[in-house]
TrEMBL record:
<feature type="compositionally biased region" description="Basic and acidic residues">
    <location>
        <begin position="444"/>
        <end position="457"/>
    </location>
</feature>
<feature type="coiled-coil region">
    <location>
        <begin position="151"/>
        <end position="185"/>
    </location>
</feature>
<protein>
    <recommendedName>
        <fullName>Coiled-coil domain-containing protein 13</fullName>
    </recommendedName>
</protein>
<dbReference type="InterPro" id="IPR038929">
    <property type="entry name" value="CCDC13"/>
</dbReference>
<feature type="region of interest" description="Disordered">
    <location>
        <begin position="243"/>
        <end position="262"/>
    </location>
</feature>
<feature type="region of interest" description="Disordered">
    <location>
        <begin position="426"/>
        <end position="457"/>
    </location>
</feature>
<keyword id="KW-0175">Coiled coil</keyword>
<feature type="region of interest" description="Disordered">
    <location>
        <begin position="23"/>
        <end position="51"/>
    </location>
</feature>
<feature type="coiled-coil region">
    <location>
        <begin position="480"/>
        <end position="507"/>
    </location>
</feature>
<feature type="coiled-coil region">
    <location>
        <begin position="306"/>
        <end position="368"/>
    </location>
</feature>
<feature type="compositionally biased region" description="Polar residues">
    <location>
        <begin position="128"/>
        <end position="147"/>
    </location>
</feature>
<feature type="region of interest" description="Disordered">
    <location>
        <begin position="120"/>
        <end position="147"/>
    </location>
</feature>
Length: 539
């Protein structure tokens, strides 16, 4: 930069070996087309070309760095990791909002239940107040004493109703306890697990076509366990009575036979028939009757014992059958409980494994989230650095634009100075060659015509071929060659600078477009986030 400033100062002091401040009063006596002036102008032109080449290289390097930065920004923009991070954050936010919504719903449900209970209590109290006999007022304006009496009466009624409600609650509680006890007793009696009495009764009604609320259907012979026990007891009593009646009947029949034989003996006995044979026969008959009695008594005792044994055996068989059935039921229940226990143990193991998997997954998710957050922070830092670099590059580009504008102005000044030098040379040629006066008038006209258009038009005119032809007209062959070469070099430099200026302008426009695209993308992301938040709030 310091060298450039020195070169600019030197160029301001001298342009192509000609001083910027021309002393027209004291004209030089030597020839302006000498070799020294040509060598100095060539050296200065070489210096200018070297400076232009270095500036071109610097501008190209800067444009390359800017393009690299743009490609990096586009890569960061198109990176899918940022989108995945945003999706994870949004999913976590949705989960939190859903959990809070569920808690709020549970709270609202509990509050609505509490409100319904309070409303029902208020309705019951209001119904109790309305059922009381209406009080008729003779006049609208009553005393405060009457109001206080009515309030006291209403309070007493409320207290009574509250007491009745508490009593009913206590009764309900006792009934519930009694039902629980009855259910337990039924479970012990029946050997069945009764979860709900109504369902159990309905199943019995469906199986046996019984209606416990009304009468049984015709043709149905279902009886409960207690009824069966009572009937069996009555049947046993009837059987015992029948056996006793049979025994008594047989005993009476045997007695009647003995009495008949005694009476016959008495009738046949007498003084005429008192023989030994008759007495022996009578004794034999008595012995036979006694034997028959003993046999009948033994038979009766054996029959009673057999009947009792039969009844006992039947009862024992029934009890054995019931016990076997209960044992079978208990075995089935035991097997069912074992299978259920095995299934439950397997389920518990599976649930433990699932819980362990979920814990591992949650730990992995937390690690992934932490790593992604760290990566996000790094990306944000890198993006911030890239943005800072972009800002610095923009500032440098602005500086380069300013430098290019200053260089353009310098070139314009140099061109004007060249024009002044050309006019000065023409004046000298007019002094040396008076025949060239007509050419001077033409160039003055051309210079006056060129002052009119704008800077861009002037640059285009300077680059045009007509300008070089106008400048060469009226010069010698050697001077025309030198001037034409110099003008061509300057025209090429001006065209290069113009192309650089257009490239810089296009780069600035591209940077503006990229900024607008970034702003639109950020605005779309913000809108989507706001829409998601609004949808979550509405849900």
């Amino acid at each position: 930069m310091f060298k450039a400033v020195i070169n600019e100062a030197a160029s301001k002091s001298k342009v192509f070996g000609i001083p910027s401040k021309l002393a027209f009063d004291s004209l030089p006596t030597h020839d302006p087309y000498s070799d020294e002036s040509e060598s100095s102008s060539e050296n200065e032109s070489r210096k200018m070309e070297a400076e232009c080449g270095s500036k071109k290289a610097h501008v190209l390097n800067k444009t390359g760095t800017v393009m690299k930065e743009k490609s990096r920004i586009n890569e960061c923009r198109n990176n899918e990791d940022i989108a995945s991070l945003k999706i994870i954050e949004l999913s976590k936010r949705i989960r939190e909002l859903m959990s809070s919504l569920a808690t709020e719903q549970n709270k609202s449900r509990s509050l609505t239940k509490h409100i319904h209970l309070l409303e029902s209590e208020l309705k019951g109290k209001s119904d109790g107040g309305t059922n009381s006999p209406p009080v008729r007022y003779n006049n609208r304006s009553t005393d405060q004493g009457d109001n206080s009496v009515q309030l006291k009466s209403l309070q007493e009624k409320l207290a009574k109703y509250e007491q009745s409600i508490t009593e009913l609650k206590n009764q309900n509680h006792t009934f519930k306890n009694e039902l629980k006890a009855a259910r337990k007793v039924l479970e012990l009696e029946t050997g069945e697990a009764i979860t709900n009495l109504s369902m159990w009764l309905k199943t019995i009604e469906r199986k046996n076509d019984v209606d416990f609320n009304g009468t049984m259907k015709p043709g149905v012979q279902w009886r409960g366990r207690q009824q069966q026990i009572v009937l069996l007891k009555a049947r046993l009593r009837s059987l015992e009575m029948q056996t006793q009646e049979r025994v008594m009947h047989e005993h009476r029949h045997s007695r009647s036979d003995i009495d008949g034989s005694l009476e016959a003996g008495r009738l046949t006995s007498g003084a005429t028939t008192l023989d030994v044979e008759d007495i022996i026969c009578f004794e034999n008959e008595l012995n036979h009757q006694e034997c028959n009695r003993s046999v009948t008594n033994r038979d009766q005792m054996s029959l009673c014992s057999k009947l009792k044994n039969v009844n006992q055996v039947a009862q024992l068989e029934k009890e054995n059958e019931t016990l076997r059935e209960e044992i079978r039921v208990l075995k089935n229940r035991k097997t069912n409980w074992k299978t259920r226990e095995q299934n439950l143990t397997l389920e518990v193991k599976n649930l433990k494994a699932q819980a362990q998997c979920l814990l591992n997954k949650s730990n992995n998710d937390e690690e992934l989230i932490q790593s992604l957050l760290e990566y996000q922070k790094k990306l944000q830092a890198s993006i911030q650095q890239e943005l800072d670099k972009q800002c610095t590059m923009e500032n440098e580009l602005r500086k380069k634009n300013d430098e290019a504008c200053s260089v353009q102005l310098q070139h314009k000044n140099e061109i004007e100075k060249l024009q002044v030098n050309a006019t000065y040379q023409r004046q000298l040629e007019q002094e040396v060659r008076p025949t060239r006066g007509s050419m001077k008038t033409r160039k003055t006209r051309d210079s006056n015509d060129e002052k009119g258009p704008n800077s861009e038009q002037r640059l285009h005119e300077l680059i045009s071929r007509e300008y070089s032809e106008r400048a060469i007209v009226g010069l010698n062959v050697s001077a025309a060659n030198i001037v034409s070469k110099r003008i061509q070099e300057l025209q090429s430099a001006i065209s290069d600078l113009m192309s650089e200026l257009t490239a810089v302008k296009s780069m600035s426009d591209r940077m503006k477009d990229a900024r607008t695209e970034d702003f639109t993308i950020l605005s779309q992301i913000v809108r989507q986030l706001r829409e998601c938040c609004s949808d979550e709030k509405e849900e």
